[in-house]
Automatic annotation (TrEMBL):
This is DUF1801 domain-containing protein. Residues 7-86 form the YdhG-like domain. It comes from the Bacteria. InterPro entries: YdhG-like (IPR014922).
């Protein structure tokens, strides 16, 4: 998923945060990716973006900030791209 998802935009730095590839802006990680034993995860650390796209996230396997995909073929790349675009559109609070 990380390889297929484009970087959010200029102003973000690609880093390793908590052992995961992440994108940070102004020194704060806003997005991270992880490959767990049972699933692939997309960590969306911006509550405002989660709230704005709540309708699209409904029905997804979602924790507080972790969007989980059980199989690599089930990754909704359009949703991931939209989350990246919404995060890149403007800075916001990290929850």
């Amino acid at each position: 998923m990380y390889e297929r998802a484009p970087p959010p935009a200029q102003g973000f730095t690609e880093v390793m945060a908590y052992g995961m590839p992440a994108y940070q802006r102004d020194g704060v990680a806003e997005i991270a990716f992880a490959s767990q034993k049972q699933y692939l995860s997309f960590h969306l650390l911006r509550g405002d973006v989660r709230d704005a796209l709540a309708g699209r996230l409904a029905g997804q396997d979602m924790g507080k900030s972790c969007l989980r995909f059980r199989k690599s073929g089930s990754v909704d790349l359009d949703l991931v791209r939209d989350l990246l675009r919404a995060t890149a559109a403007a800075p916001g609070p990290v929850a």
